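anyone seen this seq b4? input:
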Amino acid sequence: MSVFDDAFAAARTAAMDYMGTTVTYTPKGGSASEITAIPDLLDTDRDEDEHGSADVQSINIDISLADVASPATGDTVAIDGVDYTVAAVRDKAAGMATLECRRVDRVQHARSGWRADL
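predicted toks r here
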């Protein structure tokens, strides 16, 4: 490793120690494990379709590839007891990956002439 690689690895470790939180990562069809991740701010949007509306919560989290070597779409991340599904893996470089995670809650389910709040 070069001096730069050593310095970057030390900075990445320090960032995870300072800003990281423990989350549970479960690969699709695999076993859960606790890892350290840096979550971004949670964003909530309302989606409307012919069946009603749903709240879509999204959050990006940064993880170390030393903890999860091959993150993939469809995997699950639990943050503070809330499960999110990995929708995309991006920025997979320098020993880190950014995961775009989503959670969908159906708020209302409707059909013609009826409305039921779930």
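The CA atoms of residues 70 and 82 lie 22 Å apart. DSSP finds one helix and eight strands in the chain. kinda curious what u guys think
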